[in-house]
Phosphate regulon sensor protein PhoR (Coralloluteibacterium stylophorae), 266 residues
Amino acid sequence: DPDQTLSLHPIVYNDEQWLLVARDVSRLMHLQKVRRDFVANVSHELRTPLTVVHGYLDMIEPEDHPELAGIVDEMRRQSHRMTHLVEDLLTLSRLEAQDALAEEETVAMRPLLDTLRREALALSQGRHRILVSDLCNCDLRGSTKELHSAFSNLISNAVRYTPTGGEIEVRYEAETDGGVRFAVRDSGHGIPSQHLARLTERFYRVSTSRSRDSGGTGLGLSIVKHVLALHQSHLEVSSRMGIGSVFSCRFEAERIVPRSEEAVNA
Ligand code: ADP
């Protein structure tokens, strides 16, 4: 049956005897698809009313209604938050529905790292020391758009969870065995070890109040996880309380393209 999905688990007893357990997971897969489609549809339907609310809020001039200024500001803030949430939900549904990248290109890492540095500076607004080091003379095969979103998420977390005066270091460097690593290190609060394994779950938050105040949607690391999986990579996290965290990922040699002469001289 082409609609049937089986999950196969071989159990080896010894050299001669083994057992193959086949589990029919078609219904589970179907339910997952229903959930994904539902979330995607709801998010899509929320876009239009949100645009209308934004439009009307933008028409209110605070100076004409001084008594409403604080309220209108808060309404704008919350409606922006909701827009981000809807956008992240749509991004996540789109990523979840993909088994592989639809198309691959050469991701020019130098301009991408420049963009990430500018974004980090804008977000930090001078509150942190930000270092971006490009220590690898190569680019990556993959999706520029998706990798940009994953790397931005890691950097925006580092900025949001690091107090004023802290340091954020982004490194893109070659590993000794032919792979490359992209790493974001911060000198922030740190994450207690019991939370590390669950960070990429949707809406999982270490400290709910602090995370909500930080302006995130709770979906950032889920998006990162899916983008990395589409590039045969995964997120690695290490953290020490009061010292900071390192979020990094490794790309295998097959994904690496040496930079062309023009790119090196640019
Ligand atoms: P959020 O939008 O809440 O930041 P994420 O999925 O990006 O959602 O991150 C999940 C949780 O992981 C955050 O709520 C926060 O508790 C924790 N976290 C992520 N990055 C960091 C970091 N650099 N330092 C400390 N905690 C972090």
User: Anything to note?
Assistant: Residues 153, 157-158, 161, 186, 188-189, 191, 199, 204-207, 211, 214, 216-221, 245 surround adenosine-5'-diphosphate (CB under 6 Å). The beta strands are 6-12, 18-24, 105-107, 129-135, 138-142, 167-174, 180-186, 236-240, 244-251, 256-258. The CA atoms of residues 201 and 222 lie 6 Å apart. The radius of gyration is 22 Å.
